[in-house]
Amino acid sequence: MSRRHSPIRRSSRRSSTSSGPVAIARSARRASQNARMPPETGSAPVPAGTPLAIVCGSGAFPLAVAEIAARQRPVFLIGLQGAADSAIAHYPHGWIRMGQLGRLIDLARSADCKDILFVGGVTRPSGLSDGWPDLALLRQIPRLLRGFRGGDDRLLKVVADVMTDAGLRVVGVAEVAPDLMARTGVLAGKTPGAATLDDVCLGLDVLDAISPYDVGQSTAVADGRVLAIEAAEGTDLMIARIAELRASGKLRLGKRRGVLVKGAKRGQDLRLDTPALGPKTIDGVAAAGLSGIAVVAGEVMIIEVDAVTKAAERHGLFIFGMERRKP
Fold it and tell me: What's the pLDDT score for residue 150?
């Protein structure tokens, strides 16, 4: 393990003037006075008028992104059967089954798309036998097998390489719909106190420490204690586990204690897997008895902003955006 992912030292984290609660609080004050846009992705500008292919998984995220993208350029939606919302039919669209790599590429090309965006939830297949693999996918077996031997980010990077080889430029939500990305500062509720910001620092340290293992994008911390770390179950089920521990008496905390910390893994390709926050997660955080949510600005997208904000305020929760700390 590299030096930057060494075991967490709480004493050094508290004494740091560059990454501790005081610095985060100062960042929040600056952001409230002058909210900044997420950082640039570094990719070339999207060509005006060039159709964008949007590969749609489950949830409300694909349609929210499509709505914004369609204001700037033509879009063509490619829905994953059994996952994507049937409402994609309101746009030019086509459907694919899991494993139909060749059909996905053919659909994008037939719509004259040069750029492709992946958004929405997809259940990771257990292997190449899942779904309906076509000839194009079978030709990629050596690369895909290497991708399956690892976490989600490793597999998704293989998918990105395949798209690039097919002449399609993979883009991310931050490039297509930057207004959906979380900004720094207080996004809902009140500014978290010093003790909570200390928990946020610990949560960030945990996410940094597990990044090399391609595990998850969220953790929950209360009073300096790590309550849960996201793995294959996803954020919402991780939060539900905390609620179950509380209900069973195995986790005893005061009411509204603890914070959900969410951000990308170090080195994660945000074009293919952008962490997301929606109303369902807000309700889950409230049910788990946590006090709020801290997200890394520019790395987490927020869908249905009004609904998320109202839900947070209804439950008395805060949502706080912070800058990614340097390793």
Answer: 55
Could you tell me the sign of the dihedral formed by the alpha carbons of 27, 30, 33, 34, in that order?
A: negative
Q: What is the pLDDT of residue 129?
A: 52
Kindly give the parts of the chain with pLDDT less than 70.
Answer: 1-48, 124-134, 136-138, 140-155, 325-327
Evaluate if pTM is beyond 0.70: yes
C-alpha–C-alpha distance, residues 175 and 68, integer Å: 11
pLDDT reported for residue 36 = 32
Using CA atoms, how far apart are residues 270 and 304, in angstroms rounded to an integer?
A: 20
Residue whose pair of structure tokens reads 């590299």 in the numeric block: 2
Q: Residue 141 burial (CB < 10 Å; 0-12/13-18/19+)?
A: exposed
Token output for 3:
């030096």
Distance CA 109, CA 51 (A): 10
- Return the CA Rg of the chain: 20
Residue type at 123 in one-letter notation: T
CA–CA separation, 278 vs 43, rounded Å? 27
Q: Are 194 and 21 in contact (CB under 8 A)?
A: yes
**Cβ–Cβ under 8 Å, residues 77 and 60:** no
For CA atoms 51, 52, 58, 59, give the dihedral sign: negative
Pair 259, 203: CB distance under 8 Å: yes
Residue 42, SS3?
coil
